[in-house]
Design the sequence.
């Protein structure tokens, strides 16, 4: 949600890809792609954003913390980022999502959005469940 220099962003994409491959992810067994090239992510985020009310987003603790750190000048991108995360999850009809404790509320938002969408338009999205790692 913070603007980056294009060259830095390109390098981050390459570094992240290298790290994923170094972890042992086998591109012969899974799909690796640049999410930013899949227009359906932002298209679904727009649709889901039209079903999500602003007060719900304003209550998320991550919004409150980051907005405070930005001198109460948080951006729309920061506010709506959890809706984009929900679109990332729901686009692939994910049933289970590995999350850390700090992302549980965002997953709950995705669950609520899926349920709201399904109630309004018919069963379409599975309601994803959290997979919390034990450390």
Sequence:
């Amino acid at each position: 949600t913070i603007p980056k220099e294009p060259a830095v962003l390109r390098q981050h994409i390459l570094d992240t890809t290298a790290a994923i491959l170094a972890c042992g992810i086998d591109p012969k067994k899974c799909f690796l792609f640049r999410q930013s090239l899949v227009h359906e992510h932002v298209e679904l985020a727009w649709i889901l954003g039209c079903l999500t009310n602003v007060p719900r987003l304003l209550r998320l603790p991550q919004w409150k913390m980051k907005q405070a750190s930005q001198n109460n000048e948080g951006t729309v991108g920061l506010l709506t980022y959890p809706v984009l995360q929900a679109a990332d999850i729901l686009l692939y009809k994910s049933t289970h999502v590995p999350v850390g404790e700090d992302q549980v509320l965002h997953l709950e938002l995705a669950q609520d959005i899926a349920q709201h969408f399904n109630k309004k338009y018919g069963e379409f999205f599975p309601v994803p469940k959290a997979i919390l790692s034990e450390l």
